[in-house]
Design a protein that fits this description.
The chain has about 250 residues and is α/β, with parallel strands linked by helices. The protein has a single domain (about 5-249), classed as Rossmann fold (3-Layer(aba) Sandwich). Helices cover about 40% and strands about 15% of the residues. The protein has helices spanning about 20-25, 50-60, 75-85, 115-130, 130-140, 150-155, 165-180, 205-215, 230-235, 235-249, and strands at about 5-10, 30-35, 65-70, 90-95, 100-105, 115, 195-200, 220-225. β1, α1 (about 20-25) and β2 (about 30-35) form a beta-alpha-beta unit.
Length: about 250
């Protein structure tokens, strides 16, 4: 494996502990870092509910040059960092990722996401019941997975604190998911990219990853059958092998 450090960027509402199984499955010589996203765990919040603000809040903690592995919201951040700070990002691994989380047609057809009304209701529910909303999000992420119960358990164990001090930052993260659209910028991202996606992902359709694989200049897509939104939890050994192989290329 290359000496290039691997940075793991987790998804919304969770903590870096969600990567435990994958990190154990990676070769021992792999150098991995797993920072908390802004406002998650012990990390300070980002200054605004803007993807660039979230990305730049993470930048000081990153190595000078690294491979970024982003999952879900972490995938959006990885794409943004690769585009705006290409000197810092050597390679991309994108798991359950998309250039746009919400399906809308008001500014161009994009059917490969969650219905906008569903996302708006989800965000509104978080304001009144953050812990309950997190649990629903975990259930959605584990749908379609052959190891659904085990995956849901691992996700639940890695949930971020939704107390009064943390809830505003998590709400900000939902705004980032709802409002970000990177479609126009994807062809600018030149780093080699390995995409990993569950065929039965109920949160982010496989078609979103297929679109990314077609639009990124240097990308390949691995599809995991019988997996939902978190294939690295369902099949950590196979995901680790793909990641190690992409770093060796």
């Amino acid at each position: 494996m290359s000496a290039l450090p691997l940075v793991l960027l987790h998804g919304w509402g969770l903590t870096p502990s969600v990567w435990r199984g994958l990190r154990e499955a990676l070769p021992s010589r792999a150098v991995t870092l797993a920072p908390a996203l802004p406002g998650h765990g012990n990390a300070l919040p980002a200054p605004s509910a803007d993807l660039a603000a979230w990305s730049d809040a993470l930048l000081p903690a990153l190595p000078d040059r690294a491979a970024l592995c982003g999952w879900s919201l972490g995938g959006l951040i990885a794409l943004d960092l690769a585009r705006r700070h290409p000197e810092r990002v050597a390679r991309l691994i994108l798991i359950g990722s998309t250039p746009r989380f919400v399906a809308r047609s008001d500014d161009g057809p994009w059917p490969h996401g969650l219905d906008a009304a569903t996302v708006a209701a989800f965000n509104a529910n978080f304001a009144t019941d953050p812990a309950g909303t997190q649990k629903k999000f975990v259930a959605l992420q584990s749908l379609g997975d052959a190891r659904r119960r085990a995956v849901a358990g691992e996700l639940a164990a890695a949930l971020a604190d939704t107390g009064p001090e943390r809830a505003p930052s998590l709400s900000s993260g939902l705004e980032v998911l709802a409002n970000t659209d990177l479609r126009a910028f994807i062809p600018e991202i030149r780093q080699p990219a390995q995409l990993i996606h569950g065929a039965s992902d109920a949160l982010m359709p496989l078609a979103a990853a297929e679109w990314l694989a077609q639009q990124l200049p240097d990308a390949r897509l691995a599809i995991f059958d019988d997996c939902g939104h978190a294939p690295f939890l369902s099949r950590p050994d196979e995901c680790a092998a793909l990641i190690a192989g992409s770093l060796d290329d």
